[in-house]
Write a structure and sequence with these properties.
Layout: H1 4-25, H2 30-47, H3 50-69, H4 75-91, H5 95-121, H6 129-136
Length: 137
């Protein structure tokens, strides 16, 4: 069995890299996101609990899809949120409450980040993966 700390670090390292790429280029290539997906699925296969994982992935597909549809987040952000739900479920003792807490923190940080970016930086398109990373931490 893989410890929660190891799973947390395995999920965090790619998020830090994605945040850096998002700041530099305002995009993350799909090949990196696919590698993150394979990493998450590999860990999922080692740990089990597939029904809960898939249920939460579908939940994030719907919720993240709404964010993406309304232009609040980009395509890479959307894909990373879905994949990140696998890591979140594996590192929190109660997966449902862990996801709820993630949503609350993500919402608050996202709003603060969006307001600051619009008021101070005067940018319309902002790198948002850093918000996902800060929330994950």
């Amino acid at each position: 069995m893989i410890s929660q700390t190891i799973i947390f670090l395995i999920g965090l390292i790619p998020l830090l890299i994605f945040s850096f790429l998002d700041y530099r280029q305002l995009k993350v290539k799909n090949k990196f996101i696919i590698m993150y997906l394979f990493l998450a699925v590999g860990i999922l296969l080692l740990t089990g609990n597939y029904v809960l994982q898939l249920t939460l992935c579908v939940f994030w597909m719907l919720l993240g899809g709404m964010f993406w549809k309304f232009g609040s987040i980009g395509g890479a952000d959307y894909k990373i949120l879905i994949i990140n739900s696998i890591f979140l479920t594996l590192i929190t003792p109660n997966a449902i409450s862990g996801q709820f807490i993630f949503i609350m923190i993500f919402g608050v940080l996202g709003v603060i980040y969006g307001i600051l970016a619009n008021l101070i930086l005067k940018q319309k398109h902002i790198p948002f993966i850093s918000v996902i990373t800060m929330t994950y931490i």
